From TrEMBL:
One Gene Ontology term from the biological process aspect of the record: amino acid transport
Protein's recorded name: LysE family transporter
Tagged with keyword Transmembrane helix: yes
Position of the signal peptide: none
Membrane topology note: Multi-pass membrane protein
A Pfam family matched in the record: LysE
Chain ranges passing through the membrane: 21-43, 49-69, 90-112, 124-145, 165-187
UniProt organism field: Polaribacter pectinis
Keywords for this protein: Cell membrane, Membrane, Transmembrane, Transmembrane helix
């Protein structure tokens, strides 16, 4: 979702706006990694927290699905000369990154995986380097999406023209999948 939004921002507002968006997304990585590493052991010991995160995620993804669907009805992305409403791409990046329910579980899983292979320890230096690497990697990937947005659009054609409806469908599918997982878990424990 964040990658496709970087593509959308670049097509609508240009590369500079896409870079601001990428910076906003990247900066949110710092507290997400901190939260993930601080809570990794606690979360693995308390599965109720994961269930609560799933419930919150369903609500957020339903909201995002509705938002992107509504945006898709307003206007389609055009190939040339794009003008759109004055939104701050930096704040949009921060907002969408905060709403990204996959980041903290991803970083928790990564920490557990690296720790299980003795490739990571929970000391300050390891967390600092992991955070800096993640921040640079996230920014660079989103930067590349912004830089090559028109090339991607040419290669994918109509797909990028209907990006809001695609984002709406993706977030709706994630919400439905998570809801089904919660129902299955509830029925299995009952």
């Amino acid at each position: 979702m964040l990658n496709m939004t970087a593509l959308k921002v670049s097509l609508e507002k240009g590369t500079e706006a896409a870079n601001k968006y990428a910076l906003g997304v990247s900066l949110v990585i710092i507290p997400q990694i901190y939260i993930a590493f601080v809570l990794t052991k606690y979360i693995t010991e308390n599965p109720k927290i994961l269930e609560t995160l799933d419930k919150i995620g369903v609500v957020i993804f339903i909201f995002l699905s509705f938002y992107f669907y509504r945006e898709s009805k307003k206007s389609k992305i055009k190939v040339e000369g794009l003008q759109s409403k004055k939104e701050n791409p930096f704040l949009a990046g921060i907002t969408l990154s905060v709403l990204n329910m996959f980041a903290i579980p991803f970083f928790c899983g990564t920490a557990v995986l690296l720790d299980s292979f003795n490739l990571f320890s929970f000391d300050f230096i390891s967390i600092l380097f992991f955070t800096i690497g993640s921040l640079i990697g996230t920014f660079y990937i989103l930067y590349l999406y912004g830089k090559f947005a028109k090339t991607i659009q040419k290669k994918t054609g109509k797909l990028t023209k209907d990006i809001n409806i695609i984002l709406a469908i993706l977030t709706a599918l994630v919400a439905v999948f998570t809801l089904l997982k919660l129902i299955y878990t509830f029925l299995a424990t009952s």
